[in-house]
Amino acid sequence: MLTNSRHDTVTRYQWALSVHRQTPDKTVLLTYAGSGHGSYLRGACMRATVDAYLLEQDLPEPGTVCLEGKPGS
Questions:
Q1: Which residues contact 7 (CB under 8 A, 6 or more apart)?
Q2: 3-state SS class at 65
Q3: pLDDT in tens, 7-16
Q4: Fewest C-beta atoms under 10 Å: which of 2, 5, 33, 66?
């Protein structure tokens, strides 16, 4: 699973999209719709989705987007 903020000035979102496009059968991209570097601590949706993957190997649906402060897809 890849995670990236849509507006990250350090690791550009386009880079995450590129990695995902190169490995579509092996990756799922979880997008945080806000800004900032490091997406895990950006809200409950990001934390819950990443935790579900790490603890239970539960991948999010392709195209899942966490909105600022609320879950979305």
A1: 13, 34, 35, 36
A2: strand
A3: 999 999 999 9
A4: 2
